[in-house]
Amino acid sequence: MDTLDFDSVQVGDALPELTLPPVDRRMLALFAGASGDHHPIHIDLDFARRAGMSDVFAHGMLGMTWIGRLLTNWVPQSHLRRFDVRFQGITHLGHVIRCGGRVVEKLEVNGERCARVEVHSTSQYGQTKIAGEALVALS
């Protein structure tokens, strides 16, 4: 990964899009094991139906990890200074999630040259699932 230079990054620059494979039960089970979040709404069909859902659905934090991957594909993890999101929709089985972002501001924070980046994830139907922003340090 090339380290981005503050002078080469411009307001309006888009981050390289990240597209994930369709959400499936295996993905949810693996994330439950990796994260320790075994809430049955994400892995137990009967529980999900009793809760009024048609099926299980993705963990919100799984969606946030995908946005995190978008960011760390763009800059090294050590350059991430802040990362905030709002969960705006449920990610159902079969959804193909696309993560994207764009630079909205260049600024100095605590003596460090940074970029503020708006980030989002959407389904193949154009539904926003997560929206937020990150602050990344640039050299």
Automatic annotation (TrEMBL):
<protein>
    <submittedName>
        <fullName>Acyl dehydratase</fullName>
    </submittedName>
</protein>
<dbReference type="InterPro" id="IPR029069">
    <property type="entry name" value="HotDog_dom_sf"/>
</dbReference>
<dbReference type="InterPro" id="IPR002539">
    <property type="entry name" value="MaoC-like_dom"/>
</dbReference>
<dbReference type="Pfam" id="PF01575">
    <property type="entry name" value="MaoC_dehydratas"/>
</dbReference>
<feature type="domain" description="MaoC-like">
    <location>
        <begin position="22"/>
        <end position="122"/>
    </location>
</feature>
